[in-house]
Fold these 4 entries.
Entry 1:
Amino acid sequence: MVPLGARQAHRSIASAVTLLVLLVGLRPHPSLALEPDLEDDRLLDQVQETLSRDGPYSLALLEPLTRLGELYQESEDHALALATLERAVQVVRINRGLHSLDQVPLLRQIIRIEEVRGNDAGAWDREQKLLALVRRHRDDLRTVGVLRHIADKQMEVLARVLAGKRPPQVLLGCFYQQWPNRDGGSCHAGSRSTVIQGMLAEAQRNYADAIGVMLHNGLYGSDELRELELQVLHGVDLLRSLNHDGRGYPVPMVPGQVQASSLEPWRSRMALVAA
């Protein structure tokens, strides 16, 4: 049995060697041979063999790179996990296209790593890029889970706002501004009601888009469709309970003027959700 300390040392060596192989294509010196029963060592051998035989962008690299990324995640080697998974993303893009949905599981893993390591800005940026990617595939059922997961997270953040906190997403998404792509205004201070309305509208839009994908694919009797519809209704009811204008009507999640929807072409927080 390999002592724990020795095993951790072997893993550290494996991590360093893997990084060299992934980033600069170097083969390790025979003196760095590791315990044959370590899974990461076996995967590293597979990566090295594929690199030698098929080159750095072979699709055969995808499976071992993905598994290596998972192993580094489990051992909290976040930097190596990111480097390995990002290399796997490159492999997918080169072989299956820049906007392939096959990269989505890898991107979701990368976002989780950024969240675990406390990189809120990195996680936010990657999540926005993931949203941009799935919106290119508006009829693909693989996007439903992504949209729902992101919407659920957005509602969790909103719950923290309603509890009186100011999570980093408030500033990262510039939710103090009603139209964050316009010049002027501050991302650091403003109306709490604007933050709530903006966050709620973005989450509800993602739920609504997931519903649209399911309807397009004819899944009218799906239990998941019913759940998504209830989430949208819950959001509308929540806004109604939180914010009314002077006449007693709920403040809408839609802009007062039709042309306002063009201000954010692909991600308007004033999307036509209620309609």
Entry 2:
Amino acid sequence: MKIICIGKNYRPESPGWKAPDEPVIFLKPDSSLLHKGNPFFIPEFSQKITVEAELAVRICRLGKYIDAKFAHKYYDAFTVGLDFTAQDLYDRLSAEGLPIDIAKGFDGAVVLGEWIDKTSLPSSETRFSLQRNGQEIAAGNTTDMLFSVDQLIAAASKYYTLKIGDVILTGSPAASVPVSGEECLTGRLEGREVFALRIK
């Protein structure tokens, strides 16, 4: 199983931001996936953990060099995913020009909610949100993506063979937010709760 992550897929409000010409792609290992029902424990190696909520897509067919017009045949479900970052470690490694993999791909750095069949969701747009202790802190809509799900699948399949069970995290619509112990994060997809996660 691969967890394929997309960066810079929503246009921020900050001035001077330049949209990428093609999807920004990076990977997280399968060991970064937090097992369902477990809380997220803030790791000892970081003093600043941040989180982003993203629409997640489940791959259902083997594919390589997939044309965007056929990409809809290669995924069958959506959920909300969380992308955790050890922000202090990320900032230090970035400043030194070093790989940032350990700051993004540590154990437990990805949470996936309950999968919902795509046929039961709106075909024109899909909305998702993240709440912290009952208050919404992020919301997104697929219509706001710079690159659609089909375009992301086409782009990723140029570099990686997509396999059944692979996941694509399609990018965050909002800036990352810090998390701390004893918080509860709740993900919703089209109003349906798909996960409730305790931070320890």
Entry 3:
Amino acid sequence: IALDNVLLISINVMLRQYGGADSDMLIACAAIMQSFMLIITMPLGGITAGTQSILGYNYGACDEKRVMKAFRCIVLLCLVFCGIMFLLAQTVSGAFVKIFTKDPAYIDMAAYMIRTYSLGVLGLTIQYPFVDGMTGMGLVRWGLTFSLLRKGIFFAGVYLLPALFSATTLLYAEPISDILSATVSGAAFILLFPRLMRRREAEN
């Protein structure tokens, strides 16, 4: 949570530094954008955290088939939820922004930010279940590695993109980190989990 707060502060710092005369508006719109993203990430985190006990129990019982079945169900549930939220972000984000402001310029900018920032939200359907799932199975090192990978990519994007292009390009740091981390985490899980499962069986 502390690192998430640092990342949010970094967004504001970079918008202030590179936003010029529009920096105040950009920061205000970024706050609205983050409010929308919480509607996605909070329930998503609840889904994956709530299933940790199921994964932990079956992993402890060395039941690989049930662990994989549970993962498939969790990912599917997350996919449905994120798919719906992605469509809402891309189609009715302006209506959400109007809850906070009636200024047309702010509405347009905040809606654009939401649409851009949420482009990679489907990647969270892989990232969240694997991070929380590995943690729930006691494989904290791997869960932490997958989590820090995403935050590291995001952090790099927030600082590099506006320096190389413009202030609002930092919005792409989120979809880039979501997609890249999901790809790496998914591939790593497929390669690592059978070996970790065999090690667990050997311990018993």
Entry 4:
Amino acid sequence: MALVVVPVRLNNHNHMTTREALDRLLSIPMFQQVGGAAYNPGTERMEAFCRFLGRPQERFRSIHVAGTNGKGSVSHMTAALLAECGLKTGLYTSPHMRHVGERVRVDGGAMSEERIADFMERAMPFIDEHKPSFFEVTTAMAFDLFASEGVDVAVIETGLGGRLDATNVINPSLSVITNVSLDHTAILGDTVMAIAMEKAGIIKPDTPVVVGQSDPESAVVFIDKAHECRSPVTFADKMYRVTGYECRTDGSALFETESLLDGYRFTLESDLGGACQRYNIPTFLAVAERLADKGLEVGRPQIERALAHAAGTTGLAGRWQVMARNPLTVCDNGHNEAGIREVVSQIEKLRSQRAFDRLFIVFGVVADKDLTRILPLLPRQAEYIFTRPSVSRGLDAGELARAAAGAGLKGVVMPDVCAALQEASRRSSSGDMIFIGGSSYLVGDLLQMWDGNRFGGLSL
């Protein structure tokens, strides 16, 4: 039975202060804090929430992006491209690194606390009665802001999976699935095919879909679903490939790219310089072509500018982000097997270029990660400082250190990322490298402390 909701007008005596509204929002359990307990599968409650708000998701065009890895980067690249084409652009991604408004952006600007408070005041009758999840609330908040701001198009990133994700109430102009690998297996399934079926749930009737990587196990799932929906499907890795890349110590990179359709070769620069972008750039280029098919005036100049300034245009943080130069200090929120493999590849690329002498790694993870898959990927030639993300799901640093020792990784334990980075700074010299990662929440802790200048006497 469908939820029945009636929009409610608040009286003046129900007015919430900005602080009260933010506290109420942040009191809702979020996945990044408590894991699966905060996950509400299915779209019925979200559809009811949208009816309560007057169906805001129907008042703007959208692009829907899912995938195990790369969906955040592709979402930001796509939003940067839309902005380069002169469109007023919304962007909804998760999780946030520093403050919740980062999840909802219009033309690169994060949603203000005042706008969040205004939404919460209007939404409280529904929230109190139907108890939506934190992700459902922020999804509704994004739809509401995009509609009220009159965005031309919004890029909407899924939270988990796709079929049962709260964002899957939109009818997008284009669906994008970056890739499929094993992550969140307790929720999405423990095989690539099972996870692919969940992500294929964002494919809508008569709507083009771009798939980033044509893995044999998952490709058949996407082809079958697209055929069922009469939706043309494009596999980006059959159109483009990155044949080489040069990473720079400022965080940017050059990507040598080839069109597999005509053999044309060209170089693209991006301020998203992580090694993983060699997979995301073909997906982005295929997205650009499908948008051109839909009438968007997009050409090579717009594509080049969008990539060169993707992070700057959209406010993306935590993706191979260079925090300091002496010593070279980098953070990256790659947190699963595929993401960490790419991070290590990037570090080893820099090592081969003699970009640093000694390597220090500040590392922390959440408790539900499979350490038997992650720890063997990490470089042995490094000094480790193990710590714990501040979320309740964070794995005890001592437990992590013991597991790491069993994998041949030696290091010390520090209570939080601030103390861990101070320890890395104390041990390192100007020609060394410090890397901080293992969890997007650890990187979020870092960015919050960095912005708040809470490293005391630390000078990098």
